[in-house]
Design brief:
The complex is a heterodimer of chains A (about 290) and B (about 200). Chain A is mainly α and about 290 residues long. Chain A has one domain (about 10-285): Farnesyl Diphosphate Synthase. Chain A contains 14 helices and no strands. The N and C termini of chain A lie far apart (about 40 Å). Chain A has helices spanning about 1-10, 15-30, 40-65, 65-70, 90-110, 110-130, 140-145, 150-160, 165-185, 190-195, 200-205, 205-230, 235-255, 260-285. Chain B has seven helices and no strands. Chain B is globular and about 45 Å long. The relative contact order of chain B is 0.14. The chains are: A mainly alpha (about 290), B mainly alpha (about 200).
Amino acid sequence: MNAFAAKLRLYSPLIKSLQTGLLIFTGMAGYMSARCPIFNLSTMAGLLVSLFASISGSTILNMWWDRDIDARMSRTRNRPLAAEKINPREALFVGLALSGLGVGLAFAMHPLYGLIIFAGLFFDVVVYSIWLKRRTCWSILWGGISGAMPILAGRALALEGIDWIGIMLSLGVLFWIPTHTLTYSMKFSDDYKAACVPTFVSTYGLNFTRTVIAISSILAALAMGASAWGIGMAWGFLRLLGVLSAGLLMLAITTTFKPSERVNFGLFKYASLYMLAAMILVVIEAL
Amino acid sequence: MKMTPLDRLLLLATGILAAYQVAIGIDRFSTLPIIVYTISFGVLLVAGLLLIILGFEVLDSPVVVIVSTIIPLSLSLGLVWQHLASLRGLYLTFSIIGFLAIIVTRSIPMKSKLPTIVLAFVHGIAGMTIFLLPIALSLQGAMKPLFSLVGVGGALIGIGGLLLSFLKAGKPILSRETILKVLPGLLLLMTICFVAGFKFG
């Protein structure tokens, strides 16, 4: 039992619990946004397990593939695979097993839901990590598309189809991701340079990166606003979303025209809070 | 000065209350009060979040003087618009001119006392309006007694706004440490008064 607990403690950083938790929450919010009967225990449990398994599985597979890069970056060199605390073969097996469980369960629940979950996993592991991450800074676009899949999948499961609101919700997440990841890559640009991973900062410079962040923040706010309106969100909640979006835009503009590391990291943190708050509003609206 | 976990908790509670007010607490009002109350509580919400994320150092930004003016000006404009119909145009003009005057006097370097005078004048009028109007309305019976809580909130925001503004203007009334120590609690107490006053008044 102790050995199992110790193993779980080792695997816990491999699934990036905060990021995985936020993505699962977007999936739940996407499902609930359709205002379908949400108190169906088996469906909710299936949604939770399939999202958790597929997102955790793909994150472990990413870490398995990128363990050599992680070992070269000071920020990530203590991750269990990079620090050789976990056998890579074992991690690969666990990653594949979790991914298989997640995708399999998703297909069993609904073919379209399974297809979107599989697409998210494929874009994240194969296109983003294995194919593009070491070649081009534009790989984050595919990482973003992958991150936008849970919310689209959740809504598609509820509706048994894809509608414009689902696409806008996923665009909201897609455009939010550069705000999140680019500010992070700016803060740790030396790390990425040491690991020879191309980033927007190393390819196009700081000014261009900041402009991309500002534009993507505006687009994220517009997409979230449009989808909230499409869902039929109450006027008061729309006002609140507008206020939070204004804060995001203000920080994005500040980091463009009066850049500093502090504001940059503030934007990174605020962007996470913004997405969490937007998802909470979608969930509350559906209850 | 480092922010303590208690400070963060108090600021989070302030943010949640301000979010409640934006989303639910002002729904029954007419258009302009909804807009100005959304601005005031929205600024309070975003400011609370930024304080949690960036710490008290965010108060060193020159924008703080302008931001700390938006809250009392918009709140007082909402109150005047709702309860003193005959003064709507006049107070709207005062709010716009006062806000612009603060932006201009804070943006252009000046050696005279004009920026401080403008700041004290605008804050003073807005603060007294939020403090006195709800209490007067409650005493007259035009509003329920608990509406006077908005006035108590007005007194607190007046104190907080003046402390921050004069600190930023380089003429602190209290030491920076003392202001930062009481600020999260003051913000929460003020927001509780506003939310309760609007809800039960």
